[in-house]
Amino acid sequence: MKNLKTIVRSVDPALLWVVLALILLLLTMWLFDGKETDPLIVDVAAVDELTSIYEEHQYTWPPSQPVPQIFVESFPEDLGALQASDKKSLFFRALLPMILNENNIIHAERELLLSALGEAGTKLDELNQLADKYGVEGSLDDPATLQELMLRVDAIPPALALAQAANESAWGTSRFSREANNLFGEWTYVATDGLVPKKRDPDKKHFVRKFESLQASIASYMNNLNRGHAYDKFRSIRAEMRKSNRPLSARKLAAGLVRYSERGEHYVKEIQRMIRHNKLDQYKLSRL
Fold first, then answer.
1. Cβ neighbours of residue 103 under 8 Å, at least 6 residues apart?
2. What are the distances in angstroms from CA 271 to CA 127, 162, 163, 261, 274?
3. Kind plus residue range of the DSSP H or E element containing 188
4. What is the model's pLDDT at position 162?
5. For residues 215 and 84, what is the distance between their CA atoms, to the nearest angstrom?
6. Can you count the helices (H) and strands (E) in the chain?
7. Given this model, what pLDDT does residue 34 score?
8. CA separation for the pair 155, 149 (Å, rounded)
9. What pLDDT shows up at residue 210?
10. Residue 72: enclosing H or E segment and its boundaries?
């Protein structure tokens, strides 16, 4: 019988490397299976600092998969000094991981809701929490209430969120994005929670809402689209896509945002144009 050394010498070296690589891959998968890594939360003052972090993690635009979990607290102060293409690249990379993270939370909530439909009595506390978060009233024993909850607990296409954030925040350079981390132009009527718009009419009482981080702004925006009465059409279009097993189209869903801005249809066309021009619906923007 051949001894071990003779057997090893007889094996094709290329095949041996393939086997070793496969073993390492399986070992890595076993070590990290089911383990969630905490996101890297960064708070940087300058663009160079953020760029260095992205280079260290090989995070480019358009992104490769998976997207690293790097959560930026606020935009760098000198973001506006960048050339347009560099500003867009940094802007999209900063927001995408947090958008994907919020969608992961919504996906988990949707799975909980789907699993609870047949056993609502055993998961009543969880369903009540979801109903409260998404602004759904009525008895959870009523199929119509559960159906309305299903309409609301669903994801927002990353391409749509990126385009709206770019539009509403002037690519992260507006006063409200810099001073309030407000990416989507959300209002509040509580003075302590917002900033006074400089061009606010004297008879108006609204404020531009302040957020502690960009992540908080993204979470609020998604919840706003999923529960606001102004976006019933948006949710109806999304539900039809789900019903026919079609992927969520950011450009088609933008048609449901007529009431998001006073510009109405002009705003919708502008968002659709931004999605198309920046090829946001062509990139794979789906996985952390």
1. 155, 156, 158, 222
2. 34, 10, 6, 11, 5
3. strand 187-188
4. 98
5. 23
6. 12, 5
7. 42
8. 13
9. 94
10. strand 70-72
Contact present, 82 and 111 (Cβ < 8 Å): no
C-alpha to C-alpha distance for 256 and 156, rounded to whole angstroms? 12
Cα distances from 193 to residues 177, 206, 208, 209, 211, in angstroms, run 14, 11, 8, 6, 8
- Cβ-contact 72, 94 below 8 angstroms: yes
Say if CB 254 and CB 271 are below 8 A apart. Answer: yes
Chunk the chain into consecutive blocks of 10 residues (it has 288) and report each block's average pLDDT, rounded to whole numbers: 51 55 52 62 96 96 91 96 97 97 96 76 80 93 90 97 98 95 89 73 79 97 97 97 95 97 96 97 81
Phi, psi torsion values for 194, nearest 5 degrees: -150, 180
pLDDT at position 26 is: 55
Q: What is the pTM of this model?
A: 0.84
Which tokens is 217 given? Answer: 């702004």
Cβ atoms of 90 and 50 within 8 Å: the answer is yes
